[in-house]
């Protein structure tokens, strides 16, 4: 095997979490990600109405932004205000964002990078570590004139870039707004992550570049534990689940209120270099449904074939509300009152399995038709 490929494979393993993750930034605070009910997924159209159900306790404002270099200070509320809400839907590996900002002057006239940008970095499994080649050994000059660590002479700069940049955590430079160009730069080697079916965005605003106004941006992205430059064929989506902690942060790159002003760089993380190091991201928790979206009692369950030859199936209760009793009808003439039974079927085939739960609020049923097929 090519020795270079061996080293690149080691890089990939490290980026996928083979090394222990460092602690996330701002350990004193855990930000919250709102869980949308499955029948209330926000439509990506630039209309913030779908987000009215999200409590203000989920909002992250411009008062949370700082500049750790000491060059720009905090945002002036009279010139710039920002509110961001983040959401998710159980069963989907997608993060939804609502960005609402007002500015005294917006700058988006350039066809390139100079201009107002909302930069988002996500590490879906919170494995941490560098996500740009600079952190893995790239001695080329970087932003600000600095250079990264010395590169192993057996690995070219380009190989290091393709092996690491944006692979285990992703960075999105989102144009606010994007006019006559793609909605963002997926900074790194897997540029395909910004396109459907992995992302989408919509913006509403009524001002021209150089004018004041309010901008509403809605978008969703798919975080990946592995997203290679070759495309989605080997990609591994980050699995999102209730109470999981993910690494997430953002920065506002603001080109000032007067043409020619030095641009501002404000961060949610306390390190502006979070753009290239996932260990400097903040902790965000994927929250359960808010109580008002839960039924008083509701039956739900899952199943897994433990041993196909023995037709052994494990059932798991996922009901919500205060449940006092369970009754399973396995569809073969047998029942169980266990919460999480394991059942052995005597014959092949499929059928209807029903769970009935009962509690102070009443009863609820959930059946699955022909889901469990046994040979």
Layout of strands and helices, then pairs:
Elements: H1 3-18, E1 31-35, E2 60-61, E3 80-88, E4 95-103, E5 117-123, H2 133-137, H3 157-164, E6 170-175, E7 184-187, E8 199-204, E9 213-221, E10 224-226, E11 236-237, E12 245-254, E13 264-267, E14 282-286, E15 297-298, E16 301-307, E17 312-317, E18 320-321, E19 325-329, E20 335-336, E21 342-344, E22 352-359, E23 362-369
Parallel strand pairs: 1-3, 1-14
Antiparallel strand pairs: 2-3, 3-4, 4-9, 5-6, 5-12, 6-7, 8-9, 10-11, 12-13, 12-14, 15-18, 16-17, 17-21, 19-20, 19-22, 22-23
Write down the overall geometry: globular
Which percent range fits the helix content?
under 10%
Q: How would a crystallographer describe the biggest sheet?
A: 12 strands, mixed
> Distance N terminus to C terminus?
43 Å
**Class of the largest domain, according to the CATH hierarchy?**
Mainly Beta
